[in-house]
Amino acid sequence: IDVRLTVSPKADRALKHLDEVRVLHGSRSATATVRLIRGNRIEPGESDFAQLRFAAPVTAFAGQRAVLRRLSPAETIGGAVVIDPAASPACRNDHHRMTILAAAWGGDPLEIADALGRRSGGVVHLAELARLGSRSADHMREVLGPAYLDLGAGEIASRLAFAVAKQSCLDQLASLHRDSPLRSGFSEARVRQLLVGPISLVLVNHAERLLVEEGRVVRGREGVALAGHDPLAGLSHSQRSQLGAIEESLRQGGLKPPDPEDLCAEADADPGTGHDLVELLVASGRAVSLMNHALKQLLVFHVDALGEAGRNLHAAFPFPAQFRTGEAREVLKTTRKYVVPVLEYLDTQGVTMRNGDLRHVAQNAGLGSNGRDDV
């Protein structure tokens, strides 16, 4: 229980950190350990915030008054006023805890909410706010008015905290783009990991969603990015040449493309830049990355090769003819390493349909140059 302690001016000595006391509140009494949040003692005639820790559960309410007595000799030390009857364990010199208790002692709902928000990365739990303010959650929400926005699930945040979270998201994405200008996007998990700490994950998620709705951030296959970011526009002459060489290698490889590591070597690109260029081709829609789950290997195909695969299967097995994976492998003149991911890709694009070990080309599949349905 967090309290405001006052040691009587008539007390014989100071109240020290970790002193054992008897607490008399209402018609009950219980033994507790006094844990001072700052300092080591409260001198006679002085007051400060502290926490009373009991060996067994006790019942109290905010604003309740109590008398503190020493266990031996049995003498009155002073009094206490309950601030938080359901406090979490306090740490020594916890600045946030002191700020929250001071705000609760003052009784201003806005100051209490602001103090809770600074401790929790901008998010305020209405139940805690109501407990510290000795009012209902609905009353506290009404008092705060438009200065605070509802996050759902009993949580709120100030408009200022929202603005800070949104700007932090934009700044972090801008920093990532500067460090990796060839990347089309970054995983949401990475962006959140960089922001969470000073900002609550709940607030980061809401800020990111609002930025997407506002069109300032875009979500794509490669993750999230600032709207308007164009990695192709920033390519140097050398990088454009390397990009072209990688794309040509994929095109020439057809359904037996070189491994991504070999692509970088063929294009005379360093591994870091080469990987970014491959991802750039995928993000621009000129290549497709597929996973061979059995081999746990990532494969990259030129989009034209996948389109041609769909047309060749359509020519070899006109609807309603069915075929097995081995038959498709022979028609496409490739190996099982490549044909399984290719067929799974064509399934997802609606070009082929699978029924157990058999497949057939979709009856209404209008095969364009990229092998997808042209509807």
If you had to describe this structure to a student in words, what would you say it looks like?
- With 375 residues, this protein is of the alpha+beta class.
- The chain has 13 helices and 17 strands.
- The strands form six sheets. The protein has a six-stranded antiparallel barrel. Strands 9-11-10 form a three-stranded antiparallel sheet, sandwiched between helices.
- A hairpin with a 2-residue loop joins strand 16 (352-355) and strand 17 (358-361).
- Helix 1 runs antiparallel to helix 2, helix 3 crosses helix 4 (137-144) and helix 8 packs across helix 10.
- The longest helix has 21 residues, at 159-179.
Task: Provide the residue-averaged pLDDT.
Answer: 90
The unreliable regions are: 369-375
Give the number of DSSP strands: 17
- What's the end-to-end separation, in Å? 67 Å
Order of helices and strands: EEEEEEEEHHEHHEEHHHEEHHHEEHHHEE
Helix content: 40-55%
Q: Report Rg.
A: 33 Å
As a percent range, the share of strand residues is 15-25%
Arrangement of strands in the largest sheet:
1-6-4-3-7-8
Overall shape: elongated
Task: Count up the helices.
Answer: 13
Class of secondary structure makeup: alpha+beta
Strand-helix topology:
Blueprint lengths: L1 E6 L7 E2 L3 E6 L2 E9 L4 E2 L4 E8 L10 E6 L5 E9 L10 H12 L2 H11 L3 E3 H8 L3 H8 L3 E5 L2 E4 H21 L8 H8 L5 H13 L3 E4 L2 E4 L10 H17 L6 H7 L4 H13 L3 E6 L4 E6 H14 L8 H8 L3 H13 L3 E4 L2 E4 L14
Antiparallel strand pairs: 1-6, 1-8, 2-5, 3-4, 3-7, 4-6, 7-8, 9-11, 10-11, 12-13, 14-15, 16-17
